[in-house]
Amino acid sequence: MTEYRNFLLLFITSLSVIYPCTGISWLGLTINGSSVGWNQTHHCKLLDGLVPDQQQLCKRNLELMHSIVRAARLTKSACTSSFSDMRWNWSSIESAPHFTPDLAKGTREAAFVVSLAAAVVSHAIARACASGDLPSCSCAAMPSEQAAPDFRWGGCGDNLRYYGLQMGSAFSDAPMRNRRSGPQDFRLMQLHNNAVGRQVLMDSLEMKCKCHGVSGSCSVKTCWKGLQDISTISADLKSKYLSATKVIPRQIGTRRQLVPREMEVRPVGENELVYLVSSPDYCTQNAKQGSLGTTDRQCNKTASGSESCGLMCCGRGYNAYTEVLVERCQCKYHWCCYVSCKTCKRTVERYVSK
Amino acid sequence: MGSLSRQAFFQELGSGCLLPTVQQGLEQVWQLLLICLVCRLSWRLGLPNFLKHLSTVVGGFYTLYLFFELHMVWVVLLSLLCYLILFLCRHSSSRGPFLSITILIYLLLGELHMMDTTTWHKMRGSQMVVAMKAVSLAFDLDKGIVDKVPSPVEFMGYIYFVGTVIFGPWISFNSYMDAVESRKLSVSWFMKSVISCVKSQLCLLISNCVAPYLFPYFIPVFGNKLLRKWLQAYENSLSFHFSNYFVSFLGETTTTLAGAGFTEEKDNLKWDMTIAKPLYVEFPRSMVEVVTSWNLPMSRWLNTYVFRKALRYGSFTAIIMTYTASALLHGLSFHIGAVLLTLGFITYIEHVLRKRLSAILNACVLSKRCPSDCKHRHKKELWVYLINGTFSMLALLHLTYLGSDFRPQDGVASHTIQKWTQLSWTSHWLTFALWVFYRLIL
């Protein structure tokens, strides 16, 4: 059995090398996607990031592309801020549409980026829809399922459910429905993680409700869409990343499914990120594993978590240097309506890994 | 990638919060307003009083059903129980106390046994108004202010008066009977209704869409960790305040629209019902002023039927009993009980301290504003303003502290304790310090 697994793993690795992952290749749109006007169908073929199905989607929905380019940009910045305290160097995401092995293989890091990208693209489309930038969508109809008997529907807040998720799903899932994108197990993993990302997005956009009544009773309840940041979604997915489950493929009946590698008695949860390949420790530079190492990475001497110098530097120690910061201070608000600040200089000590 | 930019925030706020809030605010109350108006118009038709009472009972039942559906039976049961007690004790002179105890038992049983918290919580406002009406009627009968037990249809008309049955406020039985006389339709009546309605929607918007995002979007104050806790507490507090004003102005609207809520002096009719005074709460002189300005009819009720009757046991006891009664009317919520009891101590200590300072300094520094002809020597000196200003700031801090955790649906005790711990029990400590100071200057 162990030999079979080893063989299978080797086989998957070989296939991954032969067919580079294109599930999130569209993140490469940030490179030159913003310089294109997206008003002619031939623009869809100019860029590297799109697979054939996505090109078709692009041609039929040119107006979506601005949102998708924006989503690619947002995904990269959210990824950057989420992982600044981790050893894994997120800069490899900048090489999209061609990825180094840390993202090209079915690693935990790839699971995070894939799910985040799926969430952000749906979010961006939904917001464009809500703001009226997309002529092809309109205010959502009254949902058939009522949240509660006294729940009243309020406005266009729910464009996410019907248009953002649908179009976002069509776009981000498209590469994985193509057999040439990689082995089936890899595609199943990506599709699962895409779904997790969208679910996190859905959960974060719950309605906020408030009660009004005599002395705080609940005679009248008003509900509205809560304002959400991408950083909220990103933080949620990061915690799922930290508790992600390693899976192996298994034939169950006529279908191939992913099941947890360790405890083989339970199915994979719908809210769990999954990965196929274990990650290196990212301490030293190793091109084969896509590890850039932590040398010269900034760390926090006083912290105790993953950003601490002890963990970030993998025990190699760190160097200290000073930096002069120029920042705004003594800000005052002037009625109405602007803020004026003075400029101050502050010297801080920084630490980087050896 | 931080929070939304300011411009993006305001765009999001408009479509995501302002619009849905107004839409839902009107959607849920337009039928109530319509029924109030129909009731008012029908009373102008010259119907016999019997039919007038009956029409408002029908309107009241319908609005109760609109808001609470079948759960309205609990309100109906309470009113039937009240009438039964009044009828059975019609020859007694202690109807007030007896009815009060009966209602208390009913409310406690309801709270503890009869149904799930969410449903009971929804109706609590209406139950409270019914209880207050019945108790006031009983005491007024004892004192002869109302000369005989009203007929069933009169009683039910009073209890289910469509103008006050959902959002209050409490009005006396005599006020209701005055309303049944049905004053002429007039521009000032209509304008009062419209203006109160507009005010209520404005307060709803502030409660939902402005207060929760006050810092740093509306007012660019960022602050350090400690200050941010207080800023957030202030936001929660403000949101709760404006929710109360929304309900108060809505109550003004429905009451006026239904034909009550006026004062009459020598043929001069004024549609001047006032339930809450927002400016006196948001820019308070003292906590005493805050407490009375929060809900004027309720203040009047508590003063008339609880405080004055308890005064024979001493002013401190009377104050505590008043706040206890208020807490019980609000239901068995640890949070509300804790807030009201704390409020009771705060107001009492502030009151006696300022009274003492006023005597020692011979200055206008009482909890309530001095009339212009008071005999204090010092009225407009700078240090008088400073003392009053200090107490105002204290009141603002108390309000922020007490209102920092109003999520009425979860009555978990530990949450209140936790929130007050986060704010270092500041108001409690300050109140204690003021009490020590008061004892020192006795």
Automatic annotation (TrEMBL), chain B:
Coiled coil: none annotated. One of its GO terms (cellular component) is endoplasmic reticulum membrane. It comes from the Eukaryota. Keywords: Acyltransferase, Endoplasmic reticulum, Membrane, Transferase, Transmembrane, Transmembrane helix. The chain crosses the membrane at residues 59-86, 98-115, 155-173, 310-328, 334-353, 382-403, 423-441. This is Porcupine O-acyltransferase. Its EC number is 2.3.1.250. InterPro entries: LPLAT_7/PORCN-like, MBOAT_fam. It is found in: Endoplasmic reticulum membrane. It is a multi-pass membrane protein. Pfam families: MBOAT. GO terms for biological process: convergent extension involved in gastrulation; Wnt protein secretion. It comes from Danio rerio. GO terms for molecular function: palmitoleoyltransferase activity.
